[in-house]
Structure formats: structure tokens, C-alpha cells
Amino acid sequence: MRGALLVAGTTSDAGKSVVTSGVCRWLCRQGIAVAPFKSQNMSNNSMVTANGAEIGRAQWIQALAAGAEPEPAMNPVLLKPGSDRRSHVVLNGTPYGTLDAADFSVARADLARAAYDAYDDLRSRYDVVVCEGAGSPAEVNLRPYDFINMGLARRGRIPTVVVGDIDRGGVFAAMFGTVALLDPEDQALVAGFVVNRFRGDAAVLRPGLRALESVTGRPVLGTLPWIADVWLDSEDALDPPSRTAAATSGPVLRVAVVRLPRISNFTDVDALAAEPNVDVRFVDRPAAAADADLVIVPGTRSTIDDLRWLRDRGFEPVCMTGHRGTADPGRVRRVPDARGDHRRHLGRVRRSACGARVGAAAGAHDVRHPEAARPAAR
User: Fold this and answer.
1) Among 17-26, 97-106, 232-241, 319-328, whose mean pLDDT is lowest?
2) How does DSSP assign 215-276, residue by residue?
3) Are 134 and 149 in contact (CB under 8 A)?
């Protein structure tokens, strides 16, 4: 078996990353040399490869599923948004610079060239490359510049499957509309559909599948069930999942993670949720953190703007130390990070005015900023 496949989606968060991971794993189990690929990923969740390069977490996980060593070619362009109109760009695993929205029209040719070169490199070394699209292939306003979805498919003559999330509703219209908006050359590459996150009676679904096949002329290749405990690193912050680990005897530790607008590497807290009797939830209001035993302020790509957001939302009494009526302001120590600088880290529990404890229990390890453990990524 040799070739490539593009897994596209009707929307972001339709399940492209999970489907791509599953296809990679299945091919690996058949003894096929397979690699994942995503031309451009917009995510503040990243991982560092063995050679110190930075790629999106989703492609890192997909590489493990494929039995392959994660490498920059699997995600040559990584955009880390710092605002609605500005992103830091990682190109082939190393910093490229910061681009505003207006700059992308100029830089897009360089990014596309790097993406195509990386794809060609993987195709020369692996039997199969499973590509993941971004957003929707029917973003017609972006089609002239597209090197991620149908632009990539057209260049490599890659058959494409379209994944849709039926749990959100409207999946048949979304799939039909996706094909209908494509030009004939792109339509010719759409091989079929995958219905994702279905729960219910399959017999009730079948008439809809037949109708979709009739109006599009393309088969529904499969229907994937809703599986509540699928736990793969999230690609973006559209809906950070709360995690409830298996309970055992004893008290439950309640952890609240502040969902910052530009949250970065929030999946670092998955390590806490993997522990028994630990509930991890993401909150965007102080009241939702009032009963937490531990409040975590994660990393961010826009420190000043997110600090302003914290204050506007009323999180400041929860997160700040040593003032505004705190009964136990705690101990603040300076811990050198990988660059030799010094940052402030909490040494023991603080109790805020609203009653939430912030920091680590006395005698525990320091609570370090998630970015501090990633000198290579910085």
C-alpha cells in the first residue's frame, strides 16, 4: 500500500485529529510505514521533538500512533496566536517571526513552499502519509491561498474524506454544503464521508446516510460512535475538556484551571487529571473556582491582554498574593528558570479572599509556569 489520504472536516473540532490518529494506528498495525502530516496548524498546544524542534501536539500524538518518530516535517507550519490578528510562526520546528493578518498574504508563498517540501519529503520516506486538514475545505474566501486542505489535495492528487460531527446537529447539510461549495476539480478529489460522534439507534440514522449519498454521489465510508473516554491531547482551546479521573477511597482534590482567552499548553494539567481522586475543570468565572482546592493559571501567548482579562473578570483576588484581605499570603520564592532568569513561584498554600487555595501544599514541589519546562520550545 502506497499513497496519501487527506482527512478534512466540515468544521473545526469535527474530529479530524482523532480520525487521523486512528487511521495512522490502523495502518501501523498492518505493517505499513505511515506518517501523519498537517501543513499548517494553529494551536498554542505544542510539543518538542527529540531534536529540539516544536510541532503541534496533535501531530506529535499522531506520530506515536503511527509508530514513527515525531519530526518537524509532520507539521512544518505552526501558528501560535497571540491576538485575533497576530500569530507567532514556527517554521520547520524553529521560530520564524511574528506575522499580523495583513502580513500573511506576503509570507504565504514561503509557508506554502515549506509545507509542500515537507510533504514531498515524507512521501519519499514513508509508504503512506495521512494528512489532516484545518477548519473546513470549503473556506472559499481562502481557497486561492490554500495549501492545507484542497490546495494540498489538488497538488498531490490526494483522495479526501470529509468528517462531520453529528452530535452538534446539521451534519448532513454541512457535508452536502462542503461538497457543493467546492469547484469541480476539488469535488473530484472528495472520496466520501465519515460521520463522527454518533450515539443512538443506527437504524434511525440510515435514511439520512442514504439521502446524503444520493445527493452527493459519494459514499458514507463509516459511522464512528460517541466514545466519552477518548483522551488525546487537544489541538486548540475551542473547548478544553474537564477531566474526572477514576475515584478511589478518600477525599477528592478539586482543581480549577483558568481558561484564559490565549491559553497555552493547557494539556499540561492532564497529568493531574490522570491521578485518582482528582477532578480538573476549566473555569472562566471566579465563582466557578470558589470551591477549588487548587487554582491554576496556565500559560498564555498574550500576557498583558490576559492579565487585563483576569482583572476584568474579577479573578485578581483569587490569583494575586499578599493583599486584599488574604488571611495567609503565603511564601513567595524566586526559582531560576532554564535561561538563568528568576521568576516568582508559590511555595505553599495561599488562601484568597474568596476562599480558594492557590499554589502547592506545604512541602510539595514548586508550582512552575508551564512554559518554564520548555526551554527548547521557547
Assistant:
1) 319-328
2) HHS--EEEEEEP-TT-----SSSSSPPPEEPPP-SSPPEEEEEE--TTEESGGGGHHHHTST
3) yes
**What is the C-alpha separation between 93 and 376, in angstroms, rounded?**
10
pTM for the whole thing?
A: 0.72
DSSP class of residue 376 equals T
Pairing of strands 160-165, 3-9: parallel
How far apart, in Å, are the Cα atoms of 48 and each of 69, 93, 253? Answer: 12, 8, 30
In terms of Cβ atoms closer than 10 Å to its own Cβ (0-12, 13-18, 19+), residue 47 is buried
* 3-state secondary structure (DSSP) of residue 132: strand
Segment 61-64 long-range contacts (CB within 8 Å, at least 24 positions apart) = 61/17, 61/21, 61/232, 61/233, 62/17, 62/20, 62/21, 62/24, 62/36, 62/130, 62/132, 63/24, 63/35, 63/36
> Domain 3-225 belongs to what architecture?
3-Layer(aba) Sandwich (3.40)
The answer to whether the CB of 306 falls within 8 A of the CB of 262 is: yes
Domain residue ranges in the chain: 3-225, 243-373
Q: Based on the number of CB atoms within 10 Å of its own CB, is 84 exposed (0-12), middle (13-18) or buried (19 or more)? A: exposed
Residue 248 CA to its chain's centroid (Å): 30
Using the structure block, give the residue that is written with the C-alpha cell 514556527: 90
Q: 134: helix, coil or strand?
A: coil
Exposed e or buried b for every residue in 290-322, given b needs 16+ CB within 10 A? eebbbbbbbbbbbeeebbebbeeeebbbbbbbe
**172 backbone φψ class: left, alpha, beta (φ>0; ψ -120 to 50):** alpha
Reported as a single tens digit per residue, the pLDDT across 162-210 is 999 999 899 999 999 999 999 999 999 999 999 999 999 999 999 999 9
Contact 153, 189 (CB under 8 A): yes
Q: Which residues are bridge partners to 94 per DSSP?
A: 91
Point out which residues pair with 48 in neighbouring strands. Answer: 54
Q: Which cell numbers in the block locate residue 172?
A: 448532513
Cell of 314: 474579577
